[in-house]
């Protein structure tokens, strides 16, 4: 798994702006976000991620286990620079979270209150980041 992630990071690191113009915006966003994740989040080796093109913004949504057993974290990350925009950490049984599941939320730039919230509230706020 680590070799695959390193190969993706290496390929994405050589992605040039000239190549970006030749690719679709989705492909450019995917390469850019993959490189940003590899640079800013090198210890995230296991989890799921989704690349999101929202208007002219490239975002990555990551979900991964955390150091604390029985918990999982979701991050919304700026695909251009890897900066954390929003985070949700909550207990998990291995199944996906329900909208009513409670956890801790934090948001960049103080846009929303940091503290306890539901998964549904987190998703609604993260959608506005």
How would you sum up this structure, described in words?
- Helix content is 33%, strand content 33%.
- By secondary structure, the protein is α+β, with helices and mostly antiparallel strands.
- Strands 1-2-3-4-5-6 form a 6-stranded antiparallel beta sheet.
- Helix 1 (2-13) packs across helix 3.
- The radius of gyration is 15 Å and the shape is globular.
- Mean pLDDT is 80; it is low at 1-16.
What's this model, at a glance?
This protein is α+β, with helices and mostly antiparallel strands. The protein has helices at 2-13, 17-22, 25-40, 119-126, and strands at 48-54, 57-65, 71-78, 84-91, 102-107, 115-118.
Say how many strands there are.
6
Physical arrangement of strands within the biggest beta sheet: 1-2-3-4-5-6
Largest sheet: 6 strands, antiparallel
Output mean pLDDT.
80
Q: Give unreliable regions as ranges.
A: 1-16
Based on secondary structure, the structural category is: alpha+beta
The global form is: globular
Strand content: 25-35%
Number of helices: 4
Give the quaternary arrangement of the chains.
single chain
- The share of residues in helices is 25-40%
State Rg: 15 Å
Quickly count the domains: 1
Name the helix and strand elements from N-terminus to C-terminus, one letter apiece: HHHEEEEEEH
Cα separation of the termini: 31 Å
Main attributes of the structure:
129 residues; alpha+beta; 6-stranded antiparallel beta sheet; 6 strands; 33% helix; globular; disordered N terminus
Furnish the topology, listing elements before pairings:
Layout: H1 2-13, H2 17-22, H3 25-40, E1 48-54, E2 57-65, E3 71-78, E4 84-91, E5 102-107, E6 115-118, H4 119-126
Antiparallel strand pairs: 1-2, 2-3, 3-4, 4-5, 5-6
Helix pairs in contact: 1-3
